[in-house]
Amino acid sequence: MAIYKINGQELHVVEEGSPQRQVAVLLHGWSSSWYALSPLLGLLSQRFRCLAVDLPGYGQSPPPEERITIPGYADLLAEFIAQVSDGPVVLVGHSMGGMTSVTLSLRHPVLVERMVLLNPTLSGKLSSYINTVVTPIFMLERFGPLGWVITTGERAMMGMTDRIMRPASFAERTGITEADYKRIRSDTRRPGQARTRAQCFFAMRDNNLSGQLSKVETPALVLWGAEDNTVPLRDAGMVAAEWPDADLRIIPNAGHWPQFEAPDTTRRLVAAYLGLPLSSDKLHVAVGDEELMQINEIAQFLAHSDIGNNLNMAQRIRVAAQCQPRSYKPGEYIVKIDDLGSEFYVIHTGSVEVWNDPDGLTKTARGEIADNKIHVADLKPGQMTGEIAMFDEGARSADLIAGEEGATVLAFPRDQILALCEDDAVLGTQLLWNISTAVIQRMRFILWQLQRAMQQVQGAERKKKQT
Fold first, then answer.
1. Other Cβ atoms closer than 10 A to 281
2. Long-range contacts of residues 158-167, Cβ cutoff 8 Å, at least 24 apart
3. Predicted model pTM
């Protein structure tokens, strides 16, 4: 944890991840704290230096002297980013933090590379339930004497807060744990923050982003819990209508807190969008600097391979994290004919020889096995092989053997590719297109070879008849 001072305002920040990596700033929502984004900290810190901020007046950050506004929060965070980062950052914002993120990207677009927004407050108009049941409490919190009464009675009001807030915050089949729920609830009614809560409640209403989303230049992933009864799905409709470039995803069985209620789904979507260097079955495993460098190097390599066509760097990083680099000595088998296929390969360094046995293995007069295999092709770096057997999990149709200088191949397991396609439909579609294109090109070449061989045979037969 650290304290930063920005134009006289103290900001309490929870830090995680290597200081040498790109900065990701995590912004919580109304009546909350840095803990709101805690389920994503371990995931994001695999690639980023994560800074989870307590906004002024929340958590351990003291309230500002002036009245709180969303543009004011955005400008303060712009100064914070200038202090902690030497380049554009990734913003991850929940609820009011999402509104603050969008406002920041509109006011200071050069500072923001990408955004992940979870149930962002965009119109500032909360659900009917919130406006009917919760608004009266925060109207009272605006005024000094009544605010003091509410503040001093906050601990006694925990039961009432629970009954009021739980239906607004969580899905009927929510997956949030009791420990996380208690922590979120305690942040909601943290003593001494009545003025901040009241001011932010109206600051969101005053910062209606309707009609401005089309001006947002920053790429964004927008996640929404399908049962959100705090920020209703009508705001998601704003995204669809005004911001078609945003990647909007709806998460079932989640309300206003998908990062707690559907954590694995949320993490997979975030990882896929940001190109996080992890495989789909390792959502919580930290990645060291050496492994990260290897993943980045492979991602750069894939730009010049069959599989990496028309993929951006973030997508190639995501694909690179699915592979398993393997090195082989000269003449060493990578796979043999009749091995069942569960993965395909991209040649990274060296070469791979393809050997086929059209007649199968036959026995000699002595009963020994005679290998009648023929050399079919040499595969060079960037080329792929084994896709068909990987897709149908059938037997291999050829031996793959490391060439004279040995070989390093990138093995892509079937289950990892399928999980990647499920997590990111856009990336998965392009990936499958690249694989199918490479297969078709290879088949066309083989057909050309066969046609050429038949022409040569026919030509030889004609010459033989003429003589």
1. 10
2. 158/185, 158/189, 161/185, 161/188, 161/189, 164/133, 164/134, 164/137, 165/134, 167/129, 167/229
3. 0.71
Give me the amino acid identity at 16.
E
Confirm if 175 and 229 have CB atoms less than 8 A apart.
no
Question: Phi/psi zone of residue 448: left (φ > 0), alpha (ψ -120 to 50 degrees), beta?
Answer: alpha
Q: Which helix (H) or strand (E) holds 431?
A: helix 425-466
Distance (Å, whole) CA 414 – CA 279: 12
pLDDT tens by residue, 229-260: 888 888 898 998 999 889 899 999 898 999 99
Q: How does DSSP assign 148-209, residue by residue?
A: HHHHHTTTTTHHHHHHHHHHHHS-TT----HHHHHHHHHHHT-TT-HHHHHHHHHHHHTT--
Residue 292, H or E segment: helix 289-302
Max Cα-Cα span within the chain? 116
Question: Residue 113: helix, strand or coil by DSSP?
Answer: strand
Both tokens of residue 215?
């001006």
What is the chain's mean pLDDT, rounded? 83
Lowest mean pLDDT among 119-133, 137-151, 252-266: 137-151
Centroid of chain to Cα 148: 44
The token duo for 190 is: 């943290």
Q: How many CB atoms lie within 10 A of CB 95?
A: 26
SS3 (DSSP) at 139:
helix
CA 205, CA 306: separation in Å to the nearest integer?
Answer: 50
CA dihedral 96, 99, 100, 106 (to 10 degrees): 180
**Tokens standing for residue 205:** 């209403």
Asked if pLDDT for residue 280 goes beyond 50, the answer is no
pLDDT at 144 exceeding the cut of 60: no
Q: How far, CA to CA in Å, does 189 sit from each of 12, 193, 331?
A: 19, 8, 68
Domains (ranges, CATH) in the chain? 2-274 (3.40.50.1820), 289-453 (2.60.120.10)
- Of 353, 393, 394, 357, the residue nearest 373 (C-alpha): 357
pLDDT of residue 158: 47
**Residues in the chain, overall count:** 467
